[in-house]
Amino acid sequence: xxxxxxxxxxxxxLPVAVxxxxxxxxxxxxxxSFDEVVDEKIVIKDVHLPQASKMVDKDGNPYLxxxxxxxxxxxxKTIPPFLKELFLQSEDKHFYDHSGIxxxxxxxxxxxxxxxxxxxxxxxxxxxxxxxxxxxxHDRTLVRKVSEVLYAYELEKRLSKDEILNLYLNAIYFNHxxxxxxxxxxxxxxxHVNELTKAQMAFIAAIPNNPSLYDPVRHFDNTKKRQExxxxxxxxxxxxxxxxxxxxxxxxxxxxxxxxIDKYASYSTYVEDELKRLIAKTEGFxxxxxxxxxxxxxxxxxxxxxxxxxxxxxxxxxHTSLDPAKQRQAENAVNSxxxxxxxxxxxxxxxxxxxxxxxxxxxxxxDRTQFNRSFQGFRQPGSTIKPLLDFGPYIxxxxxxxxxxxxxxxxxxxxxxxxxxxxxxxxxxTLKTALSKSxxxxxxxxxxxxxxxxxxxxxxxxxxxxxxxxxxYSDSKALGGFRHxxxxxxxxxxxxxxxxxxxxxxRAIQKVTDRQGNLLYEWKDEPRAIWSKATTYKxxxxxxxxxxxxxxxxxxxxTAYAGGKTGTTNNTRDLWFAGLTDQYTASVWVxxxxxxxxxxxxxxxxxxxxxxxxxx
Length: 616
Description:
The protein has 616 residues and is an alpha+beta fold. It folds into four domains: 2-31; 68-250, Biosynthetic peptidoglycan transglycosylase-like (Penicillin binding protein transpeptidase fold), CATH 1.10.3810; 264-379 and 500-616, 3-Layer(aba) Sandwich (Beta-lactamase); 384-486, Beta-lactamase, CATH 3.40.710. The strands form five sheets. It has a five-stranded mixed sheet with strand order 2-1-5-11-12, with helices on one face. It has a five-stranded antiparallel sheet with strand order 7-6-16-15-14, with helices on both faces. A two-stranded parallel sheet has the order 3-4. α12 packs across α14 (294-312). The protein starts with a helix and ends with a helix. It comes from Bacillus badius. Its main location: membrane. It is found in: Cell membrane. InterPro entries: Beta-lactam/transpept-like, Glyco_trans_51, Glycosyltr_51/Transpeptidase, Lysozyme-like_dom_sf, PBP_transglycosylase, PCN-bd_Tpept. Keywords: Carboxypeptidase, Cell membrane, Cell shape, Cell wall biogenesis/degradation, Glycosyltransferase, Hydrolase, Membrane, Multifunctional enzyme, Peptidoglycan synthesis, Protease, Transferase.
């Protein structure tokens, strides 16, 4: 009976056992190791520390440091062993022995914190400090501390000890928005880190323990005392002798705090805008924006802005064509001519042989927070448009000569009857006289004879940013009547076509590299034919006569060659001068930000005086 009962129980339990076996086996396959769980929850990609970028002029001299924070990544090989040992001995003596967490130090800290009922003492290893600086906040909470341990665990798995130490030395904070040992060396002593003396190394090593308390600028004595304690520590650990320790402590510490480089704001604010355009062009954002609409376009703009910030925080060098001497000359010209006036001005200067932008003035007494009128101020160009839209296209189309005749009498087009500035009629005049005296009716006749579409086709080649379809079919554009207008940079760029008949879009950026000199971005512009050689020669002659005998006499710089054109808009809201010499092409605008008449300045001709001072 018992046997039968036993077999019956076995028969009943066997399916249960089989079920439990399969269930247990399935669950066992679901169980993952601690490493697997941490790998999934703590995602560590390549560690990229943001660092300072800079703009340099035509000679390679920096004029703007772009940093927030200010960090310059130092290769581990360039960081002196003595400085590394200072941090190891003061922050984590057993760094090369533990796996990211120092258990003994943690226990000591726990006892201290338990007694204090709060976090009074840390026990962070160098790896934990790196994890905190790169991935976490500096909040003194238990959650952050646990996260710090997990991140440190992952860092130790993925990086070598030397890699972790080098990252740490480039990540730590030295006050005044300075991060990393190389930036600290340059900020406090204007030296590279491998040029520091041992006394200077110990001095900067004293700061990160408490950057506020040991701020060398505000609390020099505190920093000096901690420096001496670090030197004593290095002696105790037998890295230096007692005699060497005393010698190091006696060495005078003379700070040479470096001011942030931020010069020529008119130019650098434009370069920042051009950099964005260069990145957009190179990486395809410009095409995406052209094809997008509504929210999609906004999304792409955000992505582009994020990408620009990513590039600028990667330690790039933006090589530009800035000529500091010409920039100062242009700024002085605007500021001195417009001194004491509430009227504003802008100027753009291009080097003829390279077509590079060498100077920009965004306004009188311009600072970084202002609207940069040189490339953001779109205004009606007045008669500066006549060589580009009326005279140039007419001569290029008909092969007319400079002494060919045109009527300067009254002329109406589709009910529009513009007048010459004087209100008078002048009969038949030469093209030379018509441009030199800026007769409106003559210019309009030339435009109509050329034909709207053909004349406009020349203007399109200059890539004016805000020309519209309305402008295409408007007769008033022949005399500068555009819906939005142009900037001084755009007009100066268009006038470079009178150098040799070609147009290449002027740029400030020559190239963008990383700090090792590797090329990241550059423009690939090709010159575009605009005028024939004969037209170019004739236009240069006509423009020179404007300065010698016409409306632009006050702009005459007395150089071997100078030619240009004045421009005045309705009610004298804007005064322009654009032209070129053998070396430079430049344009100048004078007017009010909120449009209003400046007729009282017309005889003074500030536009011409500024131009003359810039190019001579």
